[in-house]
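Backbones bend. Our protein:
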Amino acid sequence: VQLQASGGGLVQAGGSLRLSCLTSVTSGRTSSSYTVAWFRQAPGKEREFVAAIRRGGGSTHYGDSVKGRFTISRDNAKNTVYLQMNSLKPEDTATYYCAAGAGVILSSIGIPRAYDYWGQGTQVTVSS
């Protein structure tokens, strides 16, 4: 599985960005067979859970700091997971990574080591 994150950039506080995570699956599975999550990491800080969309039913889960502002979704036909980020704040500034895992259980959905595959990251900078 290969993941390619894109869509980052520089935006003013209050603005919006949409990140994309293209999932390339070479095994017999489809991209919808994987739980896909977004994490972020700012300089000097630990990697933080942002949002996840589970395989199969596609239930969504969010970190407390982004609830009500960010929305995760997936387009299975395009093998892509999106992160719509609205009402951005300077504290949202970080490198955003998408990750995928086939066996992620609900209790581990916000834990980075639960995911087997990672994209390269895309930088989001929010100016005040």
